[in-house]
Design a protein that fits this description.
47% helix; AAA family ATPase; 7 strands; 234 residues; seven-stranded parallel β-sheet; VirC1; globular; Rossmann fold; alpha/beta; 9 helices; DNA_Partitioning_ATPase
Amino acid sequence: MPVISFANAKGGAGKTTAALLLATEVAERGKSVTLFDADPQRWISTWSDLPGRPGNIQVISETTPASITEQIMDAAARSDYVIVDLEGTENLIVANTLSVSDLVVIPIQGSSMDARGGAKILNLIKKLEKIVRHDIKHCVVLTRTNAAVTTRALKAVQENLAVAGIDVLLTPIVERAAYRDLFDFGGGLRSQDTRMVSNLDKAKENAEMFAAEILERAMVSPRRRWYDIFKKVS
């Protein structure tokens, strides 16, 4: 089923938060998720060891450049969704994962440094498309935005993406305490206590809208046919 990867060549862009929000939102809809933690920081793995991890989310943290493609194919055969949190560098694990992804999501904060990291992934996608001979669907999600203020740097990033014709989600991921708390206390947004977390309802609404946009874009493409054939003969 759909393989959705999160990548930015700059660390700290918010990709781990975005990947975890999507995984927990999909799990809340009753779908099974295999979540690959391919980031050396291992924040997803740390989260999975906390109480409250949904039973329909499996976390895999042991990957290698040689094994990642087959691991993803195996997971896609048994899970409704496969989500991959990639590390903040350009390497073979990143390249192999992007080449078999149905959707690549590039999280970018409102800064030129994040934009440059995102541009490296966009350039890598272009190179991989020539190698695998098919389009790799991709989009940008703006992360850690301020719900009340749009900064000058963020406006500049938005304008540059628009000029470049890059698909940008209408829903940015707003900076919320509830998202940080996931990594401290585990579970998903619906397991948090409204008495302990400020603006939890707004955080839930933001996450739901973000997930809806991603899932709409992540429809399995026709190339999955050769993906399945490769799986059968490998």
